[in-house]
Every structure is written in C-alpha cells, then in structure tokens.
Predict the structure.
Amino acid sequence: MRNVLLRLRFDGRAYHGWQIQKNAVTVQEVLQKALSAVLGSAPPIKGCSRTDAGVHALEFCVSMPIYSNISCSSLVRALNVNLPESIAVLSCSEVDEEFHARYSVKYKRYLYRIWNSPVRDPFAAGLALHWPARLDEKAMEREAQAFLGTHDFSAFCASGSSVEDKVRTVTEYTACRNGDMIELRITADGFLYNMVRIITGTLIDVERGRLESGSIADIIDSRDRKRAGFTAPPDGLYLEEVIY
Amino acid sequence: MRNVLLRLRFDGRAYHGWQIQKNAVTVQEVLQKALSAVLGSAPPIKGCSRTDAGVHALEFCVSMPIYSNISCSSLVRALNVNLPESIAVLSCSEVDEEFHARYSVKYKRYLYRIWNSPVRDPFAAGLALHWPARLDEKAMEREAQAFLGTHDFSAFCASGSSVEDKVRTVTEYTACRNGDMIELRITADGFLYNMVRIITGTLIDVERGRLESGSIADIIDSRDRKRAGFTAPPDGLYLEEVIY
C-alpha cells in the first residue's frame, strides 16, 4: 500500500462543492469516477477541506491509499485524460502512511477576488465578485489586521455549523489591486464554515460605512454573527495554497 | 442625429463571431436586441472587424447613428442591463459624423494566449491554446520580427478569402510569459482572414522544428499558404485594442 497526495485545480462553477452529496455533482464524485476508470476501483479519498458550491481551487489537496504500482506521473496523465476540462490534476507525490490531506494541514491560504469597476467583466462572471463602487483595498488591508492572531471566530461562522471549537489562528491578511481586480488573501491554520466569505463581506461593509472603521476587534470579541457583515458570494473565493 | 462609438468586451465562447448569420448566435445580433430594447429600434451598427467563432474581445469597437438624446453614460448602463454576462459595454462616446468603426481604424492589436504547461488549466478552457511542450517565447519573438513591415501576407491568409489586396503593415510583435501563460501580441493596420492564427501556428511550427528557423521571410515572399504553419485555434485569440 502506498499513500499518495494529489494536488488538483478546479473551476467550481460547475460543482456543488467538494464533498459527495445526493442529487448534485461534486468534485469528489467526479474524481472518484476518474480514479475508478484508471485504477479499476476508487480508493477512499480524503480532501483537505469542504468547499462550498461555486467555490474554486487553485490548489486542492487529496490523499489516498493506492495498491497499484502505477507511477505518479502516469497517474497524473491518466487522471487528466479521464477528468472534464474544469478539473485538472497538477501533481502526485508519495507521502508517509500517517499523512492525511485534512488533518496534516498546517496552514491554508484563500484568495478572494473582487472585480471593482462600474462595468462587469465578461471574463470574470462566476470567477469574482462584481462590486461597482470603488473600494480602497489598502484601507481594507489595514482594517483586516484586526483578524490576525488567535481568536474565537464565532462571529465569522455561518449559523448551523456543528463545529465546537471555533478558535482559529490567522497569520496573514493582504490586499492588492491589479487594474480593476482586487485580490484579498488570508492565511490561517483553519477556517470555519463561510469564514472567508463573512470576513470579506465585513471588510466591504466597513468600506461602505455600514460598519464602523476600527470595529472589527469588537465584532470578534462579541462572538455574535449578527454583528459581522454580509456573506460574500462564493464566486470570488479560491483555495489558493495548502501548507503541510 | 448623433454618431456614437461603443467599446465592448466579450467572451467569444458563446458566439459564432461578430457578424450576424443565420442559424447561429452572434455578438452583433445580441447587441442589436439590447439596442432595440433600450432605444425602441436597433440603429445600423458597424463593427471594427469580423471576428471568428470562439474569438474573444477585450476591446471591440462599434459605431452607429442614434436619434435618441439618451446620455452616453445612461446608454452604457441600460445596455449592460440588457446584455448577457458574456458581453459588456465598457464605454460610449460621441464621434464625428464621418467616423466609421471599421474604415477609421489606424491600427489594431491582437493578443494570442498559450497555456504552456504539461497540465491544462481549468480556468483557461476555451480562453487559451493549451500547448504541453515547452515553448521558448523569446525565440518566437525573434522569429516574429520577420513579419514587421509592409508585405503581401497571402501566405498567412485562409484560402477562400475574397479580399483582393493582401498587403498589410505589421508594426510590432512581442512575446512575454507570466508563469505558464505566454502572451503574443501583434499590431498591424489590418489583418487578413485567420492571419493572426496562421502566424501563431507558424511560430509554433518553427519552435517545434516543423519549419526552419529563419524561414519566415521566405514564407512571406512565397505568398503560398501551404508553406506557412497550421491555423492555431480561436480559443487563445483576443482583439485587444483598436486605435483610431
């Protein structure tokens, strides 16, 4: 038995997230079908996180035991032949037996893209949040520094989450602009359900004056979801890097 | 009567090119419907060029006479409400009565994008040519300098074109790489049918040794389409800028 790690990239527009569910096509299901086609049967696969419907991944990690002696490079090629255009396997590598795509994660970085122009971009449909009014990304970056450190992020977790421990450590938050595209990046040791999307909505709400500048530390302390901003749509969200 | 110039951007994947045709959806047809919805009837519109099925535009220019006194900014907003996500009106401006989106063009610049990596990019499907073998974009740029100047480009025109005068002036050819994406840019006073796609295919054929390095000047002189390279697919082609 070998334990292998696959790095995937996928356009989330066609999928109801990662995890297998009834009555909706997910990335996990499509990957399992490709694995069955290549290996004869699909091994039990572990994803690095649950992503929501419509969320994208520049790098999504999957670990699994395989019994075949197919080389890693052949497995990449064969899977890509059997996957649709919207999913690509970027690489495959051998990992220790104890390695687990989800539990071995040290940090993950998410990217949130905002097309910040009065006119929409046809090439960004479903791939960025379109926000017509001008946003000051450097002011957003300054407000976001309040997220850094170890906090109970209950105020930034969608209601209905069954996770008990809501303490996470955010290590970096950056914002930059390339023309009309704003790129927000957040790195943490873990994320609660909808956490990046609520953080993004909160920063936009501060920018447009619906929430007070400098209030983010108080909102975190309140642990009250109703104090934070809106949940930004999945369109702009990308899992960008997984660090083990 | 006012003469106005619209700048559009469109994702060509959904369209059979610009020009109206039977039994296929084109950008012109969709724009005319939006103009009818906004102005009551569609004015005769002139596009800056005919683009093929699947070709994209970062900037496509259209001129037309209008009799309404709607402001340019209101026209932009109203058209964008009436257009699908894949087409956006970027701007509208008043132009002289003699201005014609096609005949007034001084130069146009096309961009051709190549995703140059062994693994496809899910986000580039239909938006770039996927070429797995490594290409040297700087060598391609050097070979491409042979296109500069005024030449009869018959060797780089798809057979079946009814254009008589095949002399065009190419003023610039550049190649650059951003990670795995190669961007090729060509500026000329006009382009023949499939000219950019045949030029791209010829440069790739020189890179992979199917055509001899340094042979492009001879191929131009031959005026023989069969001497040039393959026609690269429309996926990677974008009309990028129109200079009046």
Q: What stands out?
A: Residues 122 and 180 of chain B are 13 Å apart (CA to CA).
